Give the backbone structure.
Amino acid sequence: MIEVRELRREFTVTTKVGRFRRERRVVRAVDDVGFEVAAGEAVGYVGPNGAGKSTTIKMLTGILVPTSGFVRVCGVDPARRRRELARRIGVVFGQRSQLWWDLPLRDSFELLRAVYRVPKADYASRLRECVDLLDLGPFLDTPVRQLSLGQRMRGEVVASLLHGPELLVLDEPTIGLDLESKERLREFLADLNRERGTTLLLTTHDLDDIERLCPRLVVIDRGTVLADGALDELRAEVAPERVLVVDLEKPAELVGLPGVRSSRVESNGLRHHLTFSRDTTAAKVISAVAAQAEVHDLAVVEPEIDDVVRRLYARR
Amino acid sequence: MRAYVSLALAGFRRYSTYRQAMVAGMATNVAFGLLRMAVLVAAVGQAPIAGYDVAATTTYVWLGQGLMAVVVLWGDKQLADRVRSGDVVVDLYRPWHLQSALFAEDVGRAGYAVLVRLAPPVAFGAVFFPFRWPGFGTAPVFVISVALAVAVSFGMRFLLNATTFWLLDNRGVQALYTALTWLFCGLAVPLAFFPDWALPIVWSTPFAAMLQAPIDIFLERGSPWPLLAAQGFWALVVLAVGHLVLARAVRKVVVQGG
C-alpha cells in the first residue's frame, strides 16, 4: 500500500546574521527514510516534535514534492498524480479542519460527496454507518463552527471516509481530545481496520493510540528511521526487563530468585517489585516466590510504551 | 463539473448565513452612496462632464455601490490566511483544481451578493433619484459583463492571495491593490473624468474591466462589444496566470507548521 525508499526532503531556512546579512542553510527534515506498509496493516508512525513525521505524511499525500527518493502510495507516485491518489486515500490532520466552517456538518459531507464523486447509494450507506458508530446524529445539522473539538474530530474522520478510501492517514487524530472521545475514536478506527480492512497509518504523541491501534510501529527521529517492528518486539529489544509485583500475606525476605536482577521492597516487606529479564518466565519467578512465602496477590508489569520509545530515542 | 456546481451553491449558502452582516453592509453601502452622489452631482449639476448628466451620475453611483460588493473591489485574504496558517494542505490534497474550486465558491458568493448587495442600492437609487435604465437588449449583455467582471476580480484576488506562498505576509501587496482598484476601476470617479491623455492607460488595466465596464454597458455609453472583449481578454489572462502561479507554488510550497 505504501512503499518508501531513501526518501529525503530538504528545506532552505534563512536566518538573520547581523543587521542585513542573511544566511541560507539547508535543513534535512527527512533523511533517507524507508519503510513499507502492506494492505490491511495498521502502523503507528511516531517520533518527537520536529522528527519529520508530518513532512513524510505530506510527501505520502503528494502535497510536498520529495527532494529525492522513491515513494509509491496505492501504486502511484503521489506528487505526480495527486488528484488521482486523493480519491483513493483519506487524510485527517488533527490540527486542521477539512470541513466548511460556516456550514452544517451535513452540508460539508454533501459537498465532499460531490467533490469525490461518490455514488449516492455508497455515500448514504457509509454515512449511515459512520453516524451510528460515532454518534453524530445529534449534531449533523449544527454549523461546524459551533461544534466542540471532540464532535468536530469525529466529523473530520467521517469526512475522510465518505469516499471509501483504501488507506487512511491520520496526523495526530486524538490531539486535544478528552479521554472518552479518544477512546471512542480509537474503537472506531480499530473497527475500521479490522472489519473493512482499511489500511491505517497514524502519527501521534499519544502512545495509548499506538497501544490500542497499531500492532506495528515505525519510530523516527531527526529525519531517520530508528526502529521498525512490532510493538512487542521493540519492547523486548530495548526494554528487556519486566517487573513482577507480589504482595505477600506476611512480611518476608525473598532471596535467590532465578533471573531476578533487582528488587525493591515496600510496606515493610509486604510488597516486592522484582525486575526480571526476558530469558526467564514470569511463571518461574512466581513459583520461586511461592516456594518462599505465601502470596496474597501479584501482577506482571510490562514497560510503559513511553518508556520503550524514550529508550529508542536515547539509543541513537 | 457537478462538484464545482455544488461548490458554487455552497458558496451561496455560506454567505447567506450571515444575515446581520449583510444588513450592516447594506446600510453602510447606502450611506456612502448618498455621500458620493452628493459630491458628484454637485460637480455635474452645472453642466454634464464627459457625457455624465445628473441621471447618468446617480445611476453610476448606485450601480457602483451595488457592484462593488459583487465584484469585491478591496481584495480578500481567505486563501492568504490559509497559506499563512498552513491550512492550505487540506485544500491541496483534494481531488480538485484548487483555483477552479475557489472560483466556483466565489461565483456562488457573487450570486448571493447580486441579490442582497446589488439589487437593494440600485432599487433605492431608482426609487428616490433620477435613474437611467438601459434598453431591454442591453440587459443580457450587462449580465454577461457582470459575470466577466466577477471572473476578472476573482483572478486578480487569486493572484494577490497567491503571493503569500512566497511572501508569507502580503499585507503590503494587499494595500497597494486596494489603492489601485479604488483609483482605476472607476469607483472614485468615472474613468471618463480622467484627462484625455490618461484615458488609454486607465482603460487598458484589468481594473477597468471590474467595475467601469459593466457600468458603461448599463449606461449604454457607446458600443458594448469592445468593453466585453476587453473583459473577456482580462478574465482569460488573469485566470491563466493564476493557474501557472499555483502550479509553481505547489512545486515549491513549504507548508507552514507541523
Remarks:
- The radius of gyration of chain A is 24 Å.
- The longest helix of chain A spans residues 179-196.
- Chain A has a mean pLDDT of 86.
- The interface with chain B takes residues 11, 49, 53-54, 58, 61-65, 82-84, 86-87, 91, 93, 95-98, 100, 102-103, 107, 110-111, 114-117, 143 of chain A (CB under 8 Å).
